[in-house]
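Intended use. Records like the one below are meant for learning the mapping from a protein sequence to its folded structure. Do not use them to infer anything beyond what is encoded.
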Amino acid sequence: MKFGVCTWVFGDAPLEEVARTVAGMGYDGLELKGDPACSPVALRPLLAGLGLEVLSITPENVDLAHPDPAVRHQALDYYRWAIDLAAELGCPIVSCHGAVGRIRPLATQESEWAYLREGVAALAEVARAAGVRIAVEVLNRYESHLVNTARQALALLEGLDPGTVGILLDAYHMNIEEAYPPEAVRLTGERLSLFHVADSNRAAPGRGHTDWAALLAALRATGYHGDVIVECTASGPDPFTPVKGEGWRQELEAYLRESIAFLSQSLGPAASPGRR
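Structure written out for the chain above:
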């Protein structure tokens, strides 16, 4: 089990700066925002020099479920590129989700669900050939209208190879959508491929009302050995940007330091020793 930070939470900060900050806090790696401008040639020596890995890739905001075939085709092309990037970087997982910020169907819920399923199934073949896994992220209803609960994610992926396509659960989103988040973790079971942490208010664990003891106990009970990615954001308006008001970067870095201390202590010997 390794601990990482999603680079999205740093906004437009240069990747080298983000990597040095994260490495200095003792994290093992990054969840890299899938920016087509990313250069694997430049990235590999930077991360190797800092002792970091790319643990996962999080996508740009493309739409696999859009009723317009051209938009869906563009999204598929983007994910194919992200899978190729992951393979080139030795990254095990590319996360996948509906368009963030689209909270209602443009056509019908049923047709867009089918489009998403069709897209994930097509990408599973690409991922299998590349030796990469896909993790479908479960988002809350205020960010996406399609997959909001662990049960829905399991239904979406029914019949798809669990060795290639899994589920990404996020403690922050579960706090909104799941009746009892530990049960959602247990329900997901072996299909859980990646786990995101932030408290109920998207701050560091311990600053909200999430029952972390129960949630992490459920994580252990599933035998989860995947990675844990911190995706806290500073307080402030607009959930779709991590860049808030004055002092947001200092607040974020305080949350990240608290998070690595919490994870190292809470997950104990199951955690990777990394540089800690």
